Amino acid sequence: MLIGENILLALSGLLANKMRALLTMLGIIIGIASVIAIMSVGNSISTSVTSSMEALGVNNITLGVSQKSTEDTVTSDGRVFAGISRGSEMSDDDYITDEMLEAMKEEFAGSVDSVLLSESAGSGTAEDGSLTANVAVTGVNEAYLEYEDLALLAGRTLTERDQENAKNVVLVSDKLADSLFGGDYDAAIGSEVKIYISNRYYTYAIVGVYEYDDSSFSTESDDNVTTTVYLPLEAARQQNHSSTGYSQLTIVTAAGVDSASLCDELETWFNNRYYHSNDSFEVTASSMESMVSSMTDMLSTVSIAISVIAGISLLVGGIGVMNIMLVSITERTREIGTRKALGAANSSIRLQFITESIVICLTGGFIGIILGLLLAAAATNLLGYAASPSVGGIVFSVAFSILIGVFFGYYPANKAAKMNPIEALRYE
Amino acid sequence: MEKQVTDKTSENAGSSKGKNIIQLKGIIKRFYIGQPNELEILHGIDLNVKEGEFVSIVGASGSGKTTLMNIIGVLDRPTEGEYMLDGVDVSKAKDKELSGIRNQKIGFVFQTYNLISRTTALRNVELPMMYAGVGKKERQERAKYYLEMVGMQDRMTHKPDELSGGQKQRVSIARAMTNNPSIILADEPTGALDSRTGRKIMDIFHQLNQKEGKTIVLITHSNELAEETQRIITLKDGEIIGERKGSAVC
Ligand SMILES: Nc1ncnc2c1ncn2[C@@H]1O[C@H](COP(=O)(O)OP(=O)(O)OP(=O)(O)O)[C@@H](O)[C@H]1O
Ligand SMILES: [Mg+2]
Known about the structure:
The complex is a heterodimer of chains A (428) and B (250).
Chain A: H1 2-16, H2 18-57, E1 61-67, E2 73-74, E3 80-81, H3 98-107, E4 112-116, E5 118-128, E6 131-140, H4 142-148, E7 152-155, H5 160-165, E8 169-173, H6 174-181, H7 185-188, E9 192-197, E10 200-210, E11 227-232, H8 233-240, E12 248-253, H9 259-273, E13 281-287, H10 288-331, H11 333-341, H12 346-383, H13 391-417, H14 421-426
Chain B: H1 2-12, E1 20-31, E2 39-50, E3 54-59, H2 65-72, E4 80-85, E5 88-89, H3 95-105, E6 106-109, H4 121-132, H5 136-149, H6 165-177, E7 183-187, H7 195-211, E8 215-219, H8 223-227, E9 231-236, E10 239-245
Parallel strand pairs in B: 3-8, 3-9, 6-7, 7-8
Antiparallel strand pairs in B: 1-2, 1-4, 4-5, 9-10
Helix pairs in contact in B: 4-5, 4-6, 5-6
The complex binds adenosine-5'-triphosphate and magnesium ion.
């Protein structure tokens, strides 16, 4: 019976003193808004990252050569040399070679679908007189191009012969063709393109134009976006004077293969067979699957960190509510005295002020939830993910607001309840 | 509602021959007990008030009138002495019982009205019924009935700061009446009003006493108003120094 009346009373009190109410609720608003924003942004990132990574192929395995960390060495006088990497350069013997890859394909014939090889030949600008375009030149093998599944707008893709003969022929993006050839793709085919990379000009013959995929987000404006120029792998390796092998490559697994266990098998196989006697380097394999899980791990770490900040803000907010409740009780001492004279029991007074404190916190909580959702919508929009509000977060926020209201309202409410009625009535 | 009121009227109207509803014996009130500045304000008050009686208390400022009134209204406890209210010994009652007694048996009217400023006249009058657990519908009906009785039916939705002093006092009288208490305690109810408005308020008290049979204890500084009551009690320095009959018919 009294609760409904008390809620109305508290709301009218809040409306009568809007500015003060808002300032009081600020801590709660900020705290709840950040909880909601974090949980919702985290929610949308992990759902869309997971799904887009799955689309990219969670089952791909990245194979790389990395430095071994050595065992700790303890000298006779007890000093410890921590087993850190020695920082040595990779020598020709340390790379993964074509022979190793051939052997691997045989060994894992059932599980390995194809091996994607690429080698960066540097980034720079393609120039034609005053016309320029930003490019990254990458040498790729046939499997890589097949896997990329580029949409050709004109010309042809790189062929087996291009690869074998290490021809200086390239695939360029429609962006580059727009910039350098005024959008005339047929004119581009067969033309030469001059690319300036670290103080040198390289000339390639264009054999094909592919459609640049806009969806991969970029912070650069549309005009100077960097697009990839695809070169036969061998040509890139010759340009780099590196014919020894690969430090990193991607393996596409066959359908139905558990990439996580294949990772382990590949590591063991490579390291036992080729890197056993190598002091400094070893082969490591990781799958998208493990990257997705480490990404979600990282996200939850960030969430926990920001939640701590939100918690502190809620604590400060709660203390603010307690403070304003104490002020309000002092201001309304005569009212409390009057209520007691009219027959209010101590418990009724206590209930009135706890309700008021809960109403303040819940109002702050609701504003915080709305603000947090708006913030999350803006952030996810900016990052290019689909907004996905966290229902758990909203439920948690409402419950937590009530809890703060009770916790920080109890002391002031109890103080009001215990006031001596005549002293309260005499209060000026 | 109205029926109940008329019943009481026929029972008590104008009678002072009933039992003692207020019985004070040897009431002593001290403040700052156990401290060097301990202060005795009431030095042993003996006072009986009969059911349906209209009594006034007069005396100089600081003589202890309000202190005595607070004890009568069980807002405060005597340091020593016995207090029987309507046959119940309240000197030993618990806080919760006292708030029930204030709610049911006593209606307070203050010099400064003490209305709750954020809410309407109607809601102010409903307040004692809220604490009594009366349902919303009945609460409103009763509040309207008493506001009408004091002539405030046109101002029910106004907030206290939209009302004049006399109007506020009428609302506070309606508030004192809503739980149909047997005793009305009024501490200088006309103290802040001009004599004409004070006259109207006094008329309401007479009406409550005669028609509704309420026991009324009135504190006043006006000898004129005190004369209108049935019995005048004079307080000086915390002691009753005189008692005489007023002009009102018993
Ligand atoms: N809570 C209290 N603590 C200390 N002293 C008090 C308290 N209440 C009243 N007194 C003292 O008791 C004395 C009587 O006060 P009281 O309010 O009863 O006087 P009063 O007769 O009502 O005066 P007035 O006509 O001015 O209202 C005063 O000296 C006052 O200072
Ligand atoms: Mg007084």
